[in-house]
Amino acid sequence: PFQVLGLDALAGYSAAQLKAAFRARVKEFHPDVCKDTENADLIMRRVLEAYEMLSGNMGMMLER
């Protein structure tokens, strides 16, 4: 999930940092922006799943 959001798995992230990374990926791979329309939907689903997985486990991660 960290790689999908472009984050380092070994670092600790706050909720705001996760949200910022999620939004950046959404903007990058949005079907209206992404030229690879065939994979845009799949990539967006993976980004959403990664964010949901990580944001649901905020209590397990270290905040900085």
UniProtKB/TrEMBL annotation:
It comes from the Eukaryota. It holds the Pfam family DnaJ. Residues 1-64 form the J domain. One of its GO terms (cellular component) is endoplasmic reticulum. PROSITE patterns: DNAJ_2. CDD domains: DnaJ. This is J domain-containing protein. It comes from Aegilops tauschii subsp. strangulata (Goatgrass). The lineage of its organism: Eukaryota, Viridiplantae, Streptophyta, Embryophyta, Tracheophyta.
